[in-house]
Amino acid sequence: MRLNSRIILHIMGLLLLVNGGFMLIAALVSLIYKDGSTLDITLAAISTMFSGMLFMFATRKHKKEVQRKEGYIIVTFGWIVMSLSGMLPYLFTGAIPGVTNAFFETISGYTTTGASIVDDIEALPEGILLWRSLTHWIGGMGIIVLAIAILPLLGIGGMQLFAAEAPGPSADKLHPRITDTAKRLWLIYVGYTAAETLLLSVAGMSFFDAINHSLATLSTGGFSTKNASLAHWNDTPAIQYIVILFMFLAGGNFVLSYFAFKGKVQRVLRDEEFRFYAGFVIVFTALVGLMVYTQANVPVSEIHPMVMGEGESSFRHGLFQVVAVITTTGFVTADFTSWTPFLTILFFGLFFLGGSAGSTAGGIKVMRHLLIIKNGLLEFKRTLHPNAIIPVRYNDKTVKEHIVYNIIAFFVLYMLLFIIGALVLGLLGLDFESAIGGAASSLGNVGPALGSLNPVSNFNSLPDAGKWWCGFLMLAGRLELFTVLILLTPYFWRRT
After folding, report:
1. Which residue ranges traverse the bilayer (predicted)?
2. Phi/psi of residue 39, nearest 5 degrees
3. Each residue's pLDDT tens digit, 347-361
4. Which of 192, 177, 193 is nearest to 260 (CA)?
5. Is 229 left (phi over 0), alpha (psi -120 to 50) or beta?
6. Structural domain span for residue 482
7. 297 Cβ partners below 8 Å, 6+ apart?
8. Mean pLDDT score across all residues of the chain
9. Has residue 486 been placed in a domain?
10. DSSP structure class, residue 98
């Protein structure tokens, strides 16, 4: 079967049009704030949209059918094309000089990793700051899901794209039509973003800072408009508690949010993954908060009346950093690597946890961990009763064997790619702590790492080859490995 290359290029053109449209929003903000970058961002938008129109015009006579192979190619190359075009505002304005740095910042944005190479974020023009946040927001729910909502207008079905974009174990659907599913997810996504913006504005953030941090929170991205990230508002606990709430929501399954809005709260509370996800947050917050209170030196704000003392500060910093790392948002209120060696190791372990399936979070995901543990425990029973059929059950339903095998394969590949990733960074000159931290953070789309890449530093110290390598890890992690790695296998390109 030959690849339908025309439909692939046609959808690339569509994605470029969408990307250029979002750039125009950034250009409008630049014009409002008169930051001097309006013309350059507009030129980047026009160049991107013009390229998209050329692609679409040249492939207008295409076969309107997307098979599974085309789906994988469209998703992977779609992210690459979006990242290549998305770096134009940085290059045209000179805000981030050099292709390597501009591409790193862009792919870190779209993959919602939030690792930055910018040393002075507050010196960037407002239009560029918004563009950084928009790359998060576009990538958060998935640019391909956005395309699915538009494709019916072109007479193209999107089921294959959805399968490639969300290859995880969850098969929940809100509606039998995949396009309607995408629209409902986006409605929740937009609603959460608007709600957080309003609450942050009321709590004391400027509207510009509020919208930027809302875009970064709901996408579990982590780009901030301040050099100190959320530590800039350590004297305003209300702001940090609002961000914690929406990070938690963004790290949860958006399907469960839909059920909650429909009044089916019991269905949310009965969900095994949600219970473990919430349980992890509670347990790790209690542990971290206690250790911060008794052993770590965290400054206590005396400005805001909500601050009750060192106990509240310890709890808040512990809760914030636990939620930020588990959901792979990566916002920072303190340098958790400077607290205690035990907590540094603990947070490194949380790099591999991830949020819920069906969320905007990265990482391995709670559901996969849960099913791996369940299958491991059942192996004891199977050893004692080798002839018995003992299936893995999730939410009182039997999990098919091929899903369990897929999850185990994913975990093995994930750990293998982490080890290779750390080895490559070590080969490029990073010390042990920085290499394993950078690899785990990039692959899990976390943002802050360890060593020289710690939460109060950035990735600018990486050599150029290291930035490209981390960009690959970010892409593979964001698309959950198989979608990217399958393109590297000879089998994929054989004609069948």
Report:
1. 7-33, 39-59, 71-92, 137-164, 185-208, 238-261, 273-293, 342-364, 403-428, 472-493
2. -60, -45
3. 999 999 999 988 889
4. 192
5. left
6. 397-493
7. none
8. 88
9. yes
10. S
**Residue 265, both tokens:** 């709260």
406 by Cβ neighbours in 10 Å (0-12 / 13-18 / 19+) ranks as middle
What domain count does the chain have?
A: 1
Instruction: Decide: 364 and 353 in contact? Cβ < 8 Å.
Output: yes
pLDDT value for 351:
96
Is the pLDDT at 68 greater than 90? The verdict is no
pLDDT band for position 169 (cuts 50, 70, 90): low
Spatial contact of 329 and 250, defined as CB atoms under 8 Å apart = yes
Residue showing tokens 């009965």? 270
Over the stretch 279-328, which tens digit does the pLDDT of each residue have?
999 999 999 999 988 876 655 443 343 444 568 888 999 999 999 999 99
Which amino acid would we find at residue 350? Answer: L
Binding-site positions read 112-113, 221, 328-329, 445-446
What's the predicted TM-score (pTM) here?
Answer: 0.90
In a domain, 349, yes or no: no
> Where is 320: in which H helix or E strand?
helix 310-326
Of 263, 256, 252, the residue nearest 174 (C-alpha): 256
pLDDT at 53 exceeding the cut of 70: yes
Tell me how crowded residue 247 is: count the other CB atoms within 10 A of its CB. Answer: 29
What does the pLDDT read at residue 306? Answer: 43
Query: Tell me, what DSSP letter sits at residue 397?
Result: E
- Which residues are 397's β-sheet partners? 394
Q: Token digits for 60? A: 């207008």
| pLDDT category of residue 149 using cuts at 50, 70 and 90 | low
Distance CA 324, CA 317 (A): 10
Distance CA 188, CA 183 (A): 9
Is residue 272 one of the residues assigned to a domain? no
Binding-site annotation: residue ranges for K(+): 112-113, 221, 328-329, 445-446
CA distance 364 to 413: 11
Instruction: Name the H helices within 4-121.
Output: 5-33, 38-58, 68-86, 88-93, 99-110
